[in-house]
Amino acid sequence: MNEARIEITIPHLFRCPISLDLLEDPVTLCTGQTYDRSSIEKWLSAGNLTCPVTMQKLHDPSIVPNHTLRHLIDQWLQLGHQFHPGNSATIDYLTSLKHALQSPDSSLDHKLQALHKIQLLSDEYCSFKRSCFNQLSYLTLLLQLVFETRSMEFTELALSCIVKLLPLVNLDPLNMIKDESKLSTFVSLLEKGTTKTKTSLCHLIDSTATSTQTQELCHVLGNSRKVIEEIVRLAREIQEEESSKAGIKAMSALCSLQSNRESLVRGGAIDGVIAYMSGSDKLQKNLAPMAMGIIEKLVVLESGKVGVVNHPSGIQTVVKMVFRVCNNQEYCCSEVAVGVLLVICRDYGVAREEAIGAGILTQLLFLLQSQCGNKTKTKARMLLKLLRSKWNQESNNKL
């Protein structure tokens, strides 16, 4: 392949943004932008402390070899005209959509059309497309636009695209939310956004617990009173099934960090989870074990135990979760529910009385005759023993 031919057919993704030549040794900055090593080293050695494309200040000036992009370029060079034409078309198409979103000359309608197309593309998974989304820093771009654009329609659609991209891309760009001004906007969208916007933000919170890259962000969000209050409010809105489920998933994600749990209790997480579990069986079906898992983590704290005991229907709701044997997942729910009652009933006589009044003894006997696992049955026997011994002890004291 001659030089003229290569020059004409180089996909935009394979060009260095500085030299505009084919990337020979692609390296990536902390902003997610990729350059040829020689070009970016000249830029940095000249005393520049910003990213040439985004003009963001470089909090970390180190450069990291981009092996994925290097592999794609090598594949393109080796195959020459045999390189799958659809791949080049995908690169150019995604690049043009990115330009449409970035350009100050693009109208709002034009940008909305670009988002709709990105949504469709992200539905069709393939490893090459995943690499393109990563190399073109789509997550970074869409997040920046969410925090900069005042159109609620655009924000809702951009967040919907982000949610679709989350399983496909590196999650490090999410850390920009830790910035004070962006966190403020994030909270404002949770408070005042549309139901779809709030649901998408909950999915975003959920994703922060899936990567070590975003653990610190998970801690920041989990210690924001307003963030917790809003996701609790969503979980309680059981008439809105999708947003209620998203609220539970967000709480579960934040609860995965021990450092978040006290603030979750203070923010009303127990009330939100109990409201969710008190909803219809249809609503509970898929996420009842996850909801009980939140309670299990929170009752390790004294404030968590008090929250369940003092809730008007707290103990009664947990008792209802004890005998759920429709499938293996709900046996898991049973095990967690029995474990929660064991923890609370050891310390609180009122909890024992309420549990007995709510029919826990019958529930446990049914559970012991079911096909649940040995761990669940062991915990059920321990709870029965505890309730009987405490009951006899309290009866003797009264005499």
UniProtKB/TrEMBL annotation:
SMART domains tied to this protein: Ubox (SM00504)
UniProt-listed GO biological process terms: protein ubiquitination
Pathway: Protein modification; protein ubiquitination
PROSITE patterns: U_BOX
Gene giving rise to this polypeptide: LOC107470502
Residue ranges of every copy of the U-box domain listed in the record: 9-83
EC class: transferase
Protein name: U-box domain-containing protein
Record key words, sorted: Transferase, Ubl conjugation pathway
Organism (species): Arachis duranensis
Record-level Gene Ontology MF annotations: ubiquitin protein ligase activity
Enzyme Commission no: 2.3.2.27
Catalytic reactions of this protein: S-ubiquitinyl-[E2 ubiquitin-conjugating enzyme]-L-cysteine + [acceptor protein]-L-lysine = [E2 ubiquitin-conjugating enzyme]-L-cysteine + N(6)-ubiquitinyl-[acceptor protein]-L-lysine
Pfam families per record: ARM_PUB, U-box
Function, in words: Functions as an E3 ubiquitin ligase.
